[in-house]
């Protein structure tokens, strides 16, 4: 298998790795009898190793063979969604029971229909009873509040009558009304009888309700309102809200008609009311009795509905799995073409070569289990179509592969950057995030997800939590590398420790009075690992760390860019593309290393020799004055001649990249075109039929030399300028590492140490809380995200653009596992 995995064209150039090259694919054809087609697709879906091609792309979904079956599945899925929503409203969680695939599909369809009808009927009855119950509750409130209105009005009228009678017994007074005797002696039959309307109106509409009533009746009405303290459920909408009980008194039928229309417009529920106190009490008792009966009936209905939903919940998952499975099978069957005899279905699709035996076994099992008289036929087709890309990943490597696929899916059997991303991505992140205290915090956080991954993977998480959980192994690698680089930088929340021995430097005398002026002297061997702790807090800390991290960033950047160019060589060797090797890989390697490879060499030599040469001066005057003497900036003998040679190679490599490749591509195209024409003339009729499609495809593929040349010119300019800008882009490693270190130092010194210096427990607690919040919020969240995005950019732009085309498409097999993940 490893020999096949390397590919057919030059597979010997690379070690056989599962992730280096995508799996070798083949186009296969299946001829399946109709009677065993459904079972065959079910077994193939359980394998999940065959991507079907749509052979009915010219047909609409309604014209396909299994459109009716898909419609049935869609209707069953709708019923299941209805059950799920009802269970969610009732607070019932479906039980995770073993999947029961032996349930017959037709029986399940009938059962779901019966359950839906029963549930709809129960809901309709429950809603009707609940509406009546809410109406009765409102009616009870109206009877109570309106009764209070009439009782208080009658009490006031009785008291007023007594006062009038008491006045009439006394002597006549100048204050006595002149028309009082006439009013009292008026015939009761001639008094006007007032009508009234009672009900409830929403509190927020009560003011507008009163104004409209006043304007519509021109003031010929009297409105009395009283607020109900507790929220009231509206019988129509079912929403809870505050309401006012109102009684409107009016005179005349026209006023009554207007008032009734206004009540309808404002959503005011009206209820009948009588002035007779004894009847009021009787009505209240009747309403309370009906409310009690309805409450009992509603509770029984809810218990029945919950019992029904619980029975559904026990089997919901198995039913849902079966419906999804059946729908996916029929959807895939619709992609198969019907044979002329209409007795078998023809399928085409891509599968990995290693899966051929498994697919054949599935076909044989399906033929046996379905008692088919004819077996299915499996054969491999030859095709010039670009196959899909398939990498076999596990839970560790899948997240790194997703990082690469986010930029673009690899072309078929193109070198996969994910192999190197597993190491380089967390390492470059750690260079910017170097603090082993922060690294331990990240590691503890991600270990929580890793330890509980089995439980968390079966739960629905929030967007951010789910994204973090999916990248748990990436974060683990980032944390481990951050601990390593933190030990190299010797920073634990910005505090240095002598973990690997004592510092190599000490004061000149026991008093250390001249430590800040004359500095320290070296008294021991060099600190064995990482930065000497004595550098932290010294005057020269920043210049020293700046110089170290800046030069380290350039070395890492040049190394990774060289790796990218080297991968383009392996791609050219694998695909037997000599043009890319001779006229792209070699000149790019020469150009990059003539300039920035040489700069990396100077950095290493300067570190080894302890020279004080100015590397900025060396690189600038290498271009401006290449023949001038280097003077004190010379690092080794023959440096001037080497610079001249490297500069000449860099200048030669530019036209080397630009000119030969377009002309050679033109010559290859002309030679291929002539050979195809010759084959057409000297072939017989049968052969010409076979060659004709290929001839058409190449003959109509016009070779525009101008377009190819312009494309190569753009590519050359992009690489030349990119060599400078990409190298400078790696300085972000230095900048973010410095920012992280300085922020950590500021939080430690200006918050924690400052609070400690006050010798006050309250200030110390506040300072500790601020320090923890700042560390988590800024350094462990924002800085982690920032360093992650910068490492992502370095891989996508500076590394992958040297060799990675990323114009392929991902292998998407028919699999029940992916069907279950989709909701």
Automatic annotation (TrEMBL):
Organism, as annotated: Spirodela intermedia
Keywords: Coiled coil, Hydrogen ion transport, Ion transport, Membrane, Transmembrane, Transmembrane helix, Transport
Localization in the cell: Membrane
Coiled coil: 105-132
Function per UniProt: Essential component of the vacuolar proton pump (V-ATPase), a multimeric enzyme that catalyzes the translocation of protons across the membranes. Required for assembly and activity of the V-ATPase.
Cellular component terms per the entry's GO annotation: vacuolar proton-transporting V-type ATPase, V0 domain
The name this protein goes by in its record: V-type proton ATPase subunit a
Membrane-spanning parts: 427-451, 472-489, 552-573, 585-605, 642-659, 761-782
Top-level taxonomic group: Eukaryota
InterPro entries cross-referenced by the UniProt entry: V-ATPase_116kDa_su (IPR002490), V-type_ATPase_116kDa_su_euka (IPR026028)
């Amino acid at each position: 298998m490893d020999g096949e995995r390397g590919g057919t064209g030059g597979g010997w150039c690379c070690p056989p790795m599962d992730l280096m090259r995508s799996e070798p694919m083949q186009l296969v054809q299946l001829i399946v009898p109709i009677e065993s087609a459904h079972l065959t697709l079910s077994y193939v879906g359980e394998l999940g190793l065959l991507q079907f091609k749509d052979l009915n792309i010219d047909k609409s979904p309604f014209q396909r063979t299994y459109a009716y079956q898909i419609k049935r599945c869609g209707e069953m899925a709708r019923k299941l969604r209805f059950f799920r929503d009802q269970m969610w409203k009732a607070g019932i969680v479906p039980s995770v029971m073993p999947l029961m695939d032996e349930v017959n599909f037709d029986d399940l369809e009938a059962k779901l229909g019966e359950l839906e009808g029963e549930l709809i009927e129960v809901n309709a009855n429950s809603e009707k009873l609940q509406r009546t119950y809410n109406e009765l509750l409102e009616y009870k409130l109206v009877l109570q509040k309106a009764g209070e209105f009439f009782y208080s009005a009658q009490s006031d009228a009785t008291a007023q009558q007594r006062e009038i009678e008491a006045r009439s017994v006394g002597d006549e007074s100048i204050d006595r009304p002149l028309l009082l005797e006439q009013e009292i002696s008026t015939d009761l039959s001639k008094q006007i009888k007032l009508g009234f309307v009672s009900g409830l109106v929403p509190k927020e509409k009560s003011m507008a309700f009163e104004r409209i009533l006043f304007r519509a009746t021109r003031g010929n009405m009297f409105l009395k309102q009283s607020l109900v303290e507790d929220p009231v459920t509206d019988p129509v909408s079912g929403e809870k809200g505050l309401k006012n009980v109102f009684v409107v008194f009016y005179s005349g039928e026209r006023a009554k008609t207007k008032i009734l229309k206004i009540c309808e417009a404002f959503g005011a529920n009206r209820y009948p009311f009588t002035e007779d106190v004894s009847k009021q009490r009787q009505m209240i008792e009747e309403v309370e009795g009906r409310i009690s009966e309805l409450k009992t009936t509603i509770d029984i209905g809810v218990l029945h509905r919950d019992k029904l939903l619980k029975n559904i919940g026990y089997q919901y998952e198995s039913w849902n799995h079966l419906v999804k499975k059946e729908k996916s099978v029929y959807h895939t069957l619709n992609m198969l073409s019907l044979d002329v005899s209409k007795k078998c279905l023809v399928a085409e699709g891509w599968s990995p070569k290693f899966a051929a035996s498994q697919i054949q076994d599935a076909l044989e099992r399906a033929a046996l289990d379905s008692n088919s008289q004819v077996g299915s036929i499996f054969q491999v087709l030859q095709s010039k179509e670009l196959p899909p890309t398939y990498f076999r990943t596990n839970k560790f490597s899948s997240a790194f592969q997703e990082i690469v696929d986010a930029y673009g899916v690899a072309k078929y059997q193109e070198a996969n950057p994910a192999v190197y991303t597993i190491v380089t991505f967390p390492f470059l992140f750690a260079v910017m995030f170097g603090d082993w205290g922060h690294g331990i915090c990240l590691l503890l956080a991600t270990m929580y997800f890793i330890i509980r991954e089995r439980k968390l993977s079966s739960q629905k998480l929030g967007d951010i939590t789910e994204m973090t959980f999916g990248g748990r192994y990436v974060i683990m690698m980032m944390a481990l590398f951050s601990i390593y680089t933190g030990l190299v930088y010797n920073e634990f929340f910005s505090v240095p420790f002598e973990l690997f021995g004592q510092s190599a430097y000490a004061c000149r005398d026991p008093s250390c009075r001249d430590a800040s002026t004359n500095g320290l002297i070296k008294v021991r061997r060099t600190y064995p690992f990482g930065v000497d702790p004595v550098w932290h807090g010294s005057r020269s800390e920043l210049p020293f760390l700046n110089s170290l991290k800046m030069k380290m960033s350039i070395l890492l950047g040049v190394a990774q860019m060289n790796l990218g160019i080297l991968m383009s060589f392996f791609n050219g060797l694998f695909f037997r593309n000599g043009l890319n090797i001779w006229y792209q890989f070699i000149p790019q390697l020469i150009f990059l290393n003539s300039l920035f490879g040489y700069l990396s060499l100077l950095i290493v030599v300067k570190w080894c020799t302890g020279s004080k040469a100015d590397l900025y001066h060396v690189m600038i005057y290498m271009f401006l004055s290449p023949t001038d003497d280097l003077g004190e900036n010379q690092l080794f003998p023959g440096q001037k001649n080497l610079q001249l040679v490297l500069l000449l190679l860099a200048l030669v490599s530019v036209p080397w990249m630009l000119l030969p490749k377009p002309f050679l591509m033109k010559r290859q195209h002309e030679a291929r075109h002539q050979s195809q024409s010759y084959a057409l003339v000297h072939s017989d009729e049968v052969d010409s039929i076979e060659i004709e499609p290929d001839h058409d495809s190449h003959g109509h593929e016009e070779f525009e030399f101008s377009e190819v040349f312009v494309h190569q010119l753009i590519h050359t300019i992009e690489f030349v300028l990119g060599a400078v800008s990409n190298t400078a882009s790696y300085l972000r490693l230095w900048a973010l590492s410095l920012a992280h270190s300085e922020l950590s130092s500021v939080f430690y010194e200006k918050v924690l140490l400052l609070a400690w210096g006050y010798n006050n427990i309250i200030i110390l607690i506040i300072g500790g809380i601020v320090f923890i919040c700042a560390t988590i919020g800024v350094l462990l969240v924002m800085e982690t995200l920032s360093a992650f995005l910068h490492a992502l950019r370095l891989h996508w732009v500076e590394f992958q653009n040297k060799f990675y085309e990323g114009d392929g498409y991902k292998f998407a097999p028919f699999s029940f596992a992916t069907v279950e993940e989709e909701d």
